[in-house]
Design goal:
By secondary structure, this protein is of the alpha+beta class. Helix content is about 55%, strand content about 5%. A 4-stranded mixed beta sheet has the order 2-1-3-4, covered by helices on one side. The structure holds glutathione (GSH). The site of glutathione has 11 residues, from loops.
């Protein structure tokens, strides 16, 4: 059976939400990052990158990297319309996903949350966090303007872009305990009103 290696409230949440929306059977495999489980031999044997999300598929093969997993889920479940099929729609969706994952998350929030990944020297951590904060805030401001008064990034229903933006929104609300810019606040609320989203959040023991 499909299994998602995840850690509660991390970027793997975005993939978990999509699995719930898709509605096919899957299992959750806990890799608790707060306990360093990503570096334990059991998980390194599964994913030598020591990262979540990682998706074990029905044929036993492992797929890693958020955008790759999201595209694969979208394309193998076309009825869910998680990825536009026209060139412009697909390119714009991937543009948003890549900015959320590669920049706002990896270059922004990771600097704020795990400065030790960028320098072992604690004296550097203040400056690293500040740099991360700049990238993260700029990213959220960009997404707020991009969304404007639309319901979702891809149009009438959520696409993989909405699940990518959702997890960086989630961190602002639940980890930093800060308010989102207005359009993103409405988007976050709209996403949370989806039964699949609430179910996955509860399954992870989150608020
Ligand atoms: N580029 C990866 C990023 C994944 C990632 O950084 N995941 C974090 C959780 S949000 C992680 O597993 N961190 C563990 C660590 O760096 O030790 C992707 O797209 O999936």
């Amino acid at each position: 059976m499909t299994a998602l290696y995840h850690s509660p409230g991390t970027c793997s949440l975005g993939i978990h939400l999509m699995l719930e929306e898709i509605g096919k059977p899957y299992e959750l495999e806990l890799v608790d990052l707060t306990k360093g489980m990503q570096y334990k031999p059991e998980f390194v044997a599964v994913n030598p990158k020591s990262k979540v999300p990682a998706l074990k598929r029905d044929d036993g093969s492992l797929l890693t990297e958020w955008p790759a997993i999201a595209v694969w889920l979208a394309m193998t479940n076309p009825d869910k319309k998680l990825l536009p099929t026209d060139a412009e729609g697909m390119a714009r969706t991937l543009e948003t996903v890549d900015y959320a994952v590669a920049s706002v998350h990896m270059q922004g929030f990771t600097r704020m949350w795990m400065p030790q990944h960028f320098s072992p020297n604690a004296d550097d951590h203040g400056a690293i966090k500040e740099k991360g904060r700049g990238v993260y805030d700029k990213g959220l401001a960009h997404f707020d303007a991009l969304l404007g008064s639309a319901d979702y990034f891809g149009g009438a229903q959520p696409s993989i872009a909405d699940y990518a933006v959702f997890y960086v929104e989630y961190w602002k609300v639940n980890r930093l305990k800060e308010e989102l810019p207005p359009h993103l606040a409405a988007h976050y609320k709209r996403m949370r009103a989806r039964p699949a989203v609430e179910k996955a959040i509860k399954m992870e023991g989150l608020a």
